[in-house]
Every structure is written in C-alpha cells, then in structure tokens.
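Dock manganese (II) ion; give full complex structure.
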Amino acid sequence: MFSKSVFWGLILFSAVSFGASLKELGQLKSPFVLPELPYAENAFEAVIDSQTMNIHHKKHHQAYVDNTNKALAAASEVKTLDEIFKNASKLDPKIKNNAGGHWNHSFYWTTMSPKESDHTLSKPLIKAIEKDFQSVELFKEQFVQAGVTHFGSGWVWLIVDANKTLKITTTSNQDNPLMDSAAVQGTPILGVDLWEHAYYLKYQNNRAAHLKALWSIINWKQVDKYYKEAKK
Ligand code: MN
C-alpha cells in the first residue's frame, strides 16, 4: 500500500515529467513545467557537484521554462516543442532560444544515470558507432574534441541524420539539431551542455576535463532507447 504522501508524490511526478521518449518530449505543450531530475542532485558528486546540479536545474532550466511561457503568452500562442522547432527560423528568437533551452535540458538530464547497470552500451549501438566512427573510443575522442573546439556556449550532439547515419555536431546557444535553422539537422540521441554554467564551479576553464569525466555517468541504456526511436 502507498502512503498518502507517496501517492501524491507520484501524481505530481507524472504531471511534471515525461517518459523519456523523444516523441513525448516533442509533444509537450505550453505552458511548460520544469521536469523533476530523475536522480538526486548529489547523485554524481565526483563528476558534477550538487551545487552545480541544483543551480543548473532549479535556476537555469527553470528560467528557460518561464521565459518560453512568457514569450508564448505575449504572442498569444500555445505550441508544442516540435511545432516550435519546425518553425524556429520564423519565430521570435526569444521563443526559439528558451524553448530550445527547455528541450535541451530536459533531454540532457535523462542521458545521465547513477545506476551502474545503465552504463553499458547495447550491441546494436556499439555496431552502429563502429560503422560510423570505427570504434567507441574514437567516437568518444571525436565527441570530446568537437565539444572542446566549439567556440562559446552551446551543445555537442550525437545525432541520427536523415540517412540513419550517426553524426557528431555542435550548435550554439540553446539551438539544437531539431530546429529548421540548424546547419546540421537530425535526431539527437545524446547531448552535452557546453555552457560554463554546466561545469565552471568544479572544472573552471577546463571544459575538456569535464567532458571526459562525463563518460562514467552516461546513461547508455537511455541513449540506446533514443537510438532505436530515432532509427524508426
Ligand atoms: Mn545548461
């Protein structure tokens, strides 16, 4: 039997979270709400300190949610994230930037896990990575390199493109590869935040050290689910 508080906790959780499918995430409709983190803020203390996690989630992500809602309300529009990204080039940059921030962070939280059992790549994903990057090690090197050499704030992505090929790409600010304005378009299956707010307290200017440390907490089980979904 659930206690009353657990019951209401579950109701609240289902109201503010999504089931970590790309489809559900894209279909979220304004007004948007901040999703819960799928783990405790101190779950990754050795890789991402809990203060960074707290500020990143409760302040930065919350601000993207609030500012998307404000910009859409000012334009008297109700939109899904998918609709926003398909029309990104035609929309008020405030809507594009903040909705991008909401999608990117909601996605990012799900691609990390404290559970050891989530840290193993599936055989089909290993095979696909080997086909497009020769080896998992070379893929990781190229991904970190792309993140380190990206100038300024942005994101580094592993995407499935229209030809079902895996590609590494970066976007600036809160853009993402789903946007009609993206130079390289595709479906993200992994995305890492390159903004200094994601790592500065622990790593200061050493973006490379942060990116390398992240491999130990990547939720490959979830990335594999996104891969299967993106390949359909
Ligand atoms: Mn961020």
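Observed: Confidence is low (pLDDT under 50) at residues 1-16.
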